[in-house]
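User: Last request for today: this protein with flavin-adenine dinucleotide, please.
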Amino acid sequence: MQEIYDTIVIGGGQSALACAYYLRRADLNYVLLDDQPAPGASWRSYWDSLTLFSPAMFSSLPGWLMPESTSENPLREEVISYLTQYEQRYAIPLERPVRVQDVCHKDGLFEIRCDQRLYLARTVISATGTFRDPIVPHYKGSKQYEGLQFHSSQYKSPETLAGKRVLIVGGGNSGAQILAEVSKVADTSWVTLEEVSFLPDDVDGRVLFDQASARYYAMQKGEPIDPYRYSLGSIVMVPTVKEARTRGVLQTVRPFERFTATGVVWPDSQEEVIDAVIWCTGFGYALDHLACLQLQRDPKGKTAVEGTRSIQQPGLWLVGYGNWTGFASATLIGVGRSARQTVAEIEKYLEQV
Ligand code: FAD
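Assistant: Here's the final one, the structure of the complex with flavin-adenine dinucleotide:
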């Protein structure tokens, strides 16, 4: 007879591991399915020099603090090492590489179709992150542009851009950090929709997390939200961005009108030859594997949830996709709260079905 799991978790990143921590404590029969060849999930693909916004002790999953970093904030490799050790420490049952193609619901059970096998489960946690769904805005003429263009998810290091004229598009932290290192070897402009605001130098991810939590609790209590109290700015002044400021490269310009074959046309009608464009324009949600469930999704790709529980599909939870699935749930420190609540709900649900 084919095994029926209490819960199958799709994904093997920080969100899936945080859920596994609580599933293990709940003594449920579960497995994680991850399509990567090794631990680390999307951290394996981020650019080489990426460091966290916060020190190790404020970047930890439930149960075990991230070991101290060799630098002020952990490096990308240190996060991968932490996630690797976390899996081992809690002996998390995880199968990889296993790509979930489709999740359907039939006769009260989820059928999880993968390349080689079909899994059955009473409940499913989708924890597939955002990295799979990079967003590139539409600009007129982009198809005829013959220069190099790629999304920040494909950026690894600046060497190949040396000596080139490069546009970095996007006013978030990815844009600021990629600009900071590309501007050392290339002639860059930072293209943003509006002026960006920088956090004070002494404010890091800890403060942002505290601020996000305070806002969340105020909302839960139905208290009025004073936007100024919760808005310090958006760019975290990590050391590389501070260094870029000393070189005067953190200036922004408003978007170009359209592409030409060799470059762009600026709002004042000036044409310029551009060698490369890096789109630091964010991510949607990697939810294609849920297509068979026919969940309604809004224009941004979100589906209706209460906390992390799908409103439309009983037995399905979505963890780690951002504030809409739990405040600060797309961070190492924040996802534990969502995971704990999710597993508590799954335990109750399984008692009733
Ligand atoms: P992922 O890490 O994306 O893991 C999802 C896993 O599921 C992946 O292994 C993926 O391959 C797999 N998967 C997807 N689809 C399928 C499928 N159909 N079948 C099987 N497997 C599948 N967070 C912090 O806490 N601190 C920071 O300082 C910080 N800095 C960041 C800087 C940048 C530039 C970026 C982009 C993110 C940063 N984050 C930070 C956020 C954090 O990296 C992500 O939010 C986090 O990786 C999300 O974890 P996750 O487990 O939800 O998703």
